[in-house]
Write a structure and sequence with these properties.
14 helices, six-stranded parallel β-sheet, Dihydrodipicolinate Reductase, domain 2, alpha/beta, Rossmann fold, 18% strand, nine-stranded mixed β-sheet, 2 domains
């Protein structure tokens, strides 16, 4: 049975189950093992291992492949999963894995460095494989554009891993907008005021010296489309996030968890201006120690006036405390004409913290609506892949434009300059170097084909 026919069988089986059960989740334990989604886990350590384990532990999946550029990490993952991955083949190159097992894989999780998301996701999607990509979606503005196009072209289910977008926080925000609680927002202040791995490095003036590579590492695949520099522990594991060539800094890490519902339900789209208000310890190779970046959005319709999102990162670079409103170290404040709301990140719920109509508004808050999809992010993805949930809550059509806002912010952080963005032509019009960074440097030789799939 080929993988497309197996998916159709699974969809029909689960749809039938939904008719006869009143449980909020389907009776998945009754699904025969050969009717499950065949799963590949790509990136088996750290965050990749966490999302991979969540997918492997789901009753809708059976793990058939593990891929990591350091195979011992995949072996360790298999051991931690006990008997759930015993039959899974291990690979150190996603291209080899898809060539050998592509017709057997239904869905995959991608938990690897930011710069490597794009080629893996593009290849999987082109083969009809559903993809869960940990945030940020990609490494450049253009890569997001191509992934959104591929999602549409190949008709697969896609989810970006900003987990709060399947939570009650999303339902609350959407309901409060639809019921007129959140309206006429003029300003949002968001922050990530925790230390980053690159902060102790000091003034970085060159790329790090070559170190002994971990045994068995496939460094060529790790580099992917990006430049392949000598191995250093300041790249892997985990330190890649601070380098412009490989990561997206605090924006890519925390922005999707903090501003996702603001972006979606206030219909922000893309900003016309991005302002580098403050750059703390700028550096040509790594992200600054702290920044204040302002995004100006045009009026979008009734109750959606022109507004500004201010982003603050850096340990001591805190937003102002207007009217005594205190924002969490990782969180946001939303200022409208009548009320001020404060919330955290991920699944953190909003609360009304001030404003001239605070008491009046608190007295008429609507009940939390029932979700049309699963409120567990991985569960939502796998049910959408199986044809049970109607859609992924953070599909690329939703998470792509959100990520593109952060990509513009990363360019402003890197250059320390204000940007004028044409939302129609999708070009930066006042700075040629910044405009070139929308696309980034040409892919490394041998990796060009991923940019030509749509």
């Amino acid at each position: 049975m080929n993988h497309l026919n197996r998916r159709e069988l699974l969809k029909n089986s689960l749809a039938a189950s939904a008719v006869v059960t009143t449980l909020p989740s389907l009776a998945l334990g009754n699904v025969a093992s050969n009717d499950k989604l065949n799963l590949a886990v790509i990136g088996c350590a750290n965050r990749g291992g966490a999302i991979g384990a969540e997918a492997v532990n789901h009753k809708l999946t059976q793990c058939v492949a593990l891929c990591d550029v350091v195979p011992s990490r995949a072996e360790g993952f298999k051991s931690r999963m006990k008997d759930q991955c015993d039959e899974a083949e291990i690979f150190d190159d996603f291209r080899v894995m898809f060539e050998k097992l592509g017709d057997k894989i239904d869905a995959c999780t991608i938990g690897v460095p930011d710069h490597a998301h794009f080629p893996i996701a593009m290849l999987a999607m082109s083969m009809g494989i559903h993809v869960f990509v940990e945030k940020p979606l990609a490494h450049t503005f253009e890569e997001c554009e191509l992934l959104m196009a591929a999602e549409k072209k190949f008709g697969v289910q896609c989810q970006m891993g900003n987990q709060g977008h399947s939570s009650n926080q999303r339902l609350q925000f959407q309901s409060w907008v639809e019921n007129g609680i959140i309206k006429n927002v003029r300003r949002v202040d968001a922050c990530m005021n925790k230390g980053r791995r690159w902060h102790p490095w000091g003034d970085v003036t060159s790329y790090p010296a070559k170190e002994k590579m971990p045994q068995g590492m496939n460094w060529e695949v790790w580099a992917g489309t990006a430049p392949q520099r000598p191995y250093s522990s300041k790249y892997d594991p985990g330190n890649w996030r601070g380098w412009y060539e490989y990561g997206n800094g605090a924006f890519g890490d925390w922005g999707p968890h903090t501003l996702d519902t603001v972006h979606r339900f206030l219909d922000l789209g893309l900003p016309h201006t991005v302002r580098a208000e403050k750059i703390i310890k700028p550096n040509p190779l790594i992200f600054p120690h702290g920044t204040t970046i302002a995004f100006d959005f045009a009026e979008r319709g009734p109750d959606l006036p022109a507004m500004t999102v201010n982003w603050y990162d850096g340990v001591k670079n805190r937003p102002p405390m207007d009217d005594g409103v205190k924002i969490p170290a990782c969180g946001k404040a939303i200022y409208s004409d009548d009320i001020t709301l404060v919330g955290g990140t991920h699944s953190g719920m909003l609360k009304i913290a001030g404003g001239t109509k605070q008491a009046e508004t608190e007295s008429k808050l609507p009940a939390l609506p029932e979700s049309k999809t699963s409120t567990n992010h991985m569960d939502n993805f796998l049910k959408a892949a199986a044809g049970v949930d109607p859609y992924c809550n953070s599909s690329f059509a939703i998470s792509g434009p959100l990520t593109q806002v952060f990509m513009l912010g990363c360019i402003a952080q890197r250059l320390g300059e204000d940007l004028t963005f044409d939302t129609v032509t999708r070009q930066i019009t006042n700075n040629e170097r910044a405009n070139a960074l929308l696309k980034g440097p040409a892919p490394r030789k041998g990796w060009e084909s991923y940019y030509k799939m749509v």
